[in-house]
Write a structure and sequence with these properties.
280 residues, 15-stranded antiparallel β-sheet, globular, 15 strands
């Protein structure tokens, strides 16, 4: 459900068979448990720093991208792995591996497919927080792109934090995730960058594991000016918890329209996600 920062031009450089093999390995390594209700699983899925191993596959299709109004597709593979630090603290790690299909921006320029820049986040969070839940940490951007059109060749680093309201019996789960990434140098392809991300999220949980959701990803390029700086989407969608055998799966579909955007940014986005969950 959640993105990390600064991937403005952010598929497949790695074969789908390898991805499926990794998921199957997780099925074996982390057997699913059936003690949690669909409602409880939905609330876990809505907490970006839950003490829960999960593998979300989030596909974002962006429309009217670039000067030729092309269609861009970004598949974010986002494994989340928590690490218990004693009985009081957790370290929640989240990796975003973007696989990008980029349309041509100029006459005669063909579509470019490949791996974008990977982002890795780690949040330190209290293990027993209730009501108000928070996590703080760092985010790093790795220059893993397979083509100049799919990313930046300079490493990046910055802070990240998340805070949310999550209380047993309350159907509402809401909060915000924020980060900012500065390039550590600017001497390679792509140049220096300073990108911020604000992702507010609000969910209303219905009986049976169905929920309404809105989770727009607001991005800012601090080096741009005027109308070229902010991308601000509005929208929402619906999600539902189902089971693949005994394995809980969180599925979600939503749409967002950019009420503010740079000239070459998409006008709107269709987001579909399947999240495999491995509760303890």
């Amino acid at each position: 459900m959640f993105a990390t920062m600064g991937q403005r031009i952010h598929l497949p450089g790695r074969g789908p068979a390898n991805v499926l093999a990794a998921v199957c390995a997780l099925f074996v390594a982390f057997p699913a448990h059936g003690e949690l209700s669909a409602e409880e699983l939905a609330r876990l899925a809505q907490n970006p720093i839950a003490n829960l191993v999960s593998v979300p596959f989030q596909n974002n299709t962006n429309f009217s991208v670039g000067p030729r109004d092309g269609t861009q597709n970004i598949l974010n593979i986002q494994p989340v792995i928590p690490i218990e630090l004693g009985s009081d603290w957790n370290l929640i790690t989240r990796t975003i591996v973007p696989v990008v299909s980029q349309p041509g921006f100029e006459p005669g320029q063909t579509r470019t497919n490949g791996l974008g820049d990977i982002q890795f986040s780690a949040f330190l969070s209290p293990a027993k927080a209730t009501g108000l839940v928070w996590g703080v940490g760092a985010i790093a951007q790795l220059p893993t792109n397979g083509n100049d059109r799919l990313g930046n060749d300079n490493w990046g680093l910055g802070p990240t934090f998340v805070v949310l309201h999550l209380e047993k019996g309350d159907p509402w789960v809401y909060g915000v995730l924020v980060n900012n990434v500065w390039s550590l140098s600017g001497d390679r392809q792509g140049g220096s960058y300073n990108n911020g991300l604000i992702q507010p999220f609000i969910n209303y949980n219905l009986p049976g594991g169905t929920y309404l959701t809105s989770s727009p990803i607001v991005t800012v390029n601090w080096r741009a000016s005027g109308s070229e700086r902010w991308t601000v989407p509005l929208g929402g969608g619906v999600g539902h918890i189902f089971h693949f055998g005994r394995l809980p799966v969180n599925a979600q579909l939503s749409g967002y329209y950019n009420v503010a955007r740079p000239d070459d940014a998409p006008s709107w986005q269709l987001r579909a996600q399947v999240q495999f969950m491995f509760p303890k």
